[in-house]
Structures are given as C-alpha cells and as structure tokens.
Design brief:
This protein is mostly helical and 174 residues long. The chain is 68% helix and 0% strand.
Amino acid sequence: MARMRDAEVVRRRRLGPRAGAHLYPPVTIILASLAVLIPASLPGSWWPNLALLTLVAWRLRRGDAFPHWWAVPFGLFYDLVSGHPIGLSVVVFTLAMIVADLSDLRLRWRSHWTEWAIVVVLVIMAEAIEWLVALINGARAPFETIWPAVIISALLFPLIAVLIEKLDDFRLRR
C-alpha cells in the first residue's frame, strides 16, 4: 500500500504543475481587488485592502509567481475598481514589492512572525499614504482613522497567507 502511494507521488511529480498554474496568482489578486465591490455598510475605512494582502502573500510565498512589474497593472486595476486616485495603488503596490525584495535580501530566514511584521509595516505604510493623499485632496480625517483597517488587515493576513499556501500547493500538483 505504501509503495502504491509512493509511486503515485512520483507519477504526479513527473507530470508537473496543473495546466494554467501560472494564472492562479494574477487571478487571485484580481479577484481580491474586486472584493471592494462587495456592498458593505461599514463606518469609515474599515475595509482591508485585500488586493495588497494577496499580492504580498503571493510575493512572500513564492517570489517567482509573477514578474515584479506586474505590481503596476495590479495597482492600476485596483485604483479603477476601488475609486482611488489613479496611481495611488500603483505606488503602494510597487513599494510593497520593493519592501518584499529588500526583506529577501536582508533577512537570512523568515518565519511566519517576520512575514506578519513585514505585512503590518506595509499595511501601515499603505494606509498612511492613502490618508496623506486624502488629506491633500481636502478630506478632514484624523490620522487615527487608519487604525481599524490596519488592525483588521493584520488579523486577516494569516488567513490569507494560509489560503495562498494551500492554493499554491494545489496549483503545483496534479
């Protein structure tokens, strides 16, 4: 029985990844971007940036899932869907990719805690940039309004990371 399982594992490894495995990361990021269209009556800016969390989860999980320059179209798509000023998410997503690359260069090893800390810093940076752009455009929101989205994003990232991990394992096996 154990030999049959071993033979099945070897056969599956020879087959390679599933057909269209290269499409899983971009499609999940696009679907996460579309989550802002879900009608939710939440006061303030409580809705987390699921597209950013998914992008960073893929980047931290598998650095070769997509080229780095894809942060620009992902950010542009998110700007168009969410109603942010065009270019805001492009900058945020690009900075997120740069910070993820720097973490790969600087850290010899990463654990779930260090990845979580990286994501928390990225989310604070993204929310602060969005708050600053809103302030420049005339919004009168205190800086404290970013904390609900930061806390929800920080609590939600481990779940997204596990889902991306399971999806990555699924896409690379037959």
